[in-house]
Amino acid sequence: MLYQFLLNYVDFFGFLNVFKYITFRTGLSLFTSLIIVLLIGEPFIKFFSNNKILDPIRDDGPENHIVKKIGTPTMGGVIILFGLLVSVLLWGNLSNISILFCIYITISFGLLGALDDYKKIKLNNSSGISFKSKLLSQIFIAIIGISFFVYFVEYQEINNLYFPFFKNLVINLGWFFIPFSVFIIIGSSNAVNLTDGLDGLATVPVILVAACFAFISYITGNIVFSDYLQIPYIEGTGEISIFCGAIIGSCLGFLWFNAPPAKIFMGDTGSLALGGSLGTIGIITKHEIVLAITGGLFVLEAVSVMVQVISFKLTGKRIFKMAPIHHHFEKKGWPESTVVIRFWIISIILAMIGLATLKLR
């Protein structure tokens, strides 16, 4: 809103031309969301603590969690989403369909996560909304969002699936693009949700993936850079950099309070929304496979749960001591900080591999 307001006065004040640059507004978006989260963090934590908005700890989880994490406020995703959305509304181009698509998924999945968190707090257990209800809600939200996006977008190759490391390997998904996109959004959302089990574990990988896609969306929306790197050019996609900048800033601010020992957890309010928004960005930029690479840690966490469930149902045996896999290493005796930092290192490596795919084609 502020960006579009300032553009009205460009003819009178030449220095306002700087707001036309996506890189400048991305920086503003990052710092705006960072400052907002840092300013409202402590008051929100105090409010949540006073009103007993506390995270119900799993009874079957690592023993030290019951001692160390009990009484920690949850629903910190409210802080993240507030900083993110205010920043995007200030500096983003709200006439851009891609930005609107990201905002829709973020708000919708955030509200679903908030309902899940509320139910956990009210019932004082870690169950929340049933898996079936949550999944059906996610599918419904994602179908509506992707259907409107496909209807309004003018990019003719929107149905294409591009493969990294190859110049000309492209598959036209046709109408299968919609269920494929729904799968990407829901899978990304739930994968981040599963990863959010230790202090700061999900926050830093989200920052890394958002940073990668701030760059990817910028070059995808730039006809010169996209042609040089031989990736699909999509007009208007550069605006997603502003959204990615807002994710980075809000998550950096939240990490100030979420760093071990965490003062607050993001809860499903934050993890479902952030994961869904990353999946949406991957779809918009036509880098869904690169998203799976840069967000490989989230994929690993989700796969560990699926493997555990399938193994137990088929054989009655568990492959891991506990799923998701970060709890497996805790059960093996790794300190929480060791698990978190080593998983961060894995995320950094995967992010670099994901960016390398832009050149290796």
Q: Tell me the fraction of residues in β-strands, as a range.
A: under 5%
Low-pLDDT parts are none
Global shape? globular
Average pLDDT, all residues: 90
**What Rg is obtained from the alpha carbons, in whole angstroms?**
20 Å
Order of helices and strands: HHHHHHEEHHHHHHHHH
What report would you give on this structure?
With 361 residues, this protein is mostly helical. The protein has one domain. Helix content is 67%, strand content 2%. The protein has 15 helices and two strands. The chain has a two-stranded antiparallel sheet. β1 and β2 (170-172) form a beta hairpin. The radius of gyration is 20 Å and the shape is globular.
